[in-house]
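REQUEST FORM: STRUCTURE PREDICTION
Request ID: SP-0412
Submitted by: Lab K.M.
Chain count: 1
Length (residues): 216
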Amino acid sequence: MTSSELAREALPQKIKRRIKHALGPWGVFLEGFVRHPVMVGSIIPSSRFTIAKMLSRVKWDECKLFVEYGPGVGTFCRPVLERLPRDGALIVIDTNPLYIDYLRRTITDSRFTAVLGSAADVEDIVRAHGHEKADYVLSGLPFSTLPDGVGPAIADATWRVIRPGGAFLVYQFSTRARDYMARHFTRIEKDFEPLNVLPCHLFWGWKDDEETAAAA
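STATUS: Completed
RESULT:
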């Protein structure tokens, strides 16, 4: 291959890098969606209205460990860290190395840990980082498009890892996730946020003490 042919082949890569740099985190999010559309679920990060409403029911003064599935480029991470107590911790879990690498480079808060892995392994991940239970678990994973068996496995593990009094926070474009939540959480609060692309359903599944006793 001649030098001119090599230059022509490299040109599209240079253009892609420039576009990605110009778009900032949106460029990283878009690339992640293009590579794994089934796992990401949306081409646009959640709106500030969705973030504020989703986090509004968290009792931050009681939160020592907050876990997030599918953090993307950190749309929720920074607002969570702003609210989290000084002695709290945020663990995010994603199967996309592009997002995990980006978060590790851009978020330097000592309370933050980004893990490349599956949400179904949340119990092992939480224990590996020195915790027994999570106070809150947040998920924007597209339950309706996950491979067979993955959704129920994540819901099962999430219920087990949440402490009594904690909650599973879910935002989705469909109501499918509620079906998985209802197998474990008998008290599920719901809301709707129209100022999002696309408008999304919000759910809070609370793990009450009596549920824990009944499962024991």
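NOTES: The first helix runs from residue 3 to 23.
Reviewed by: T.R.
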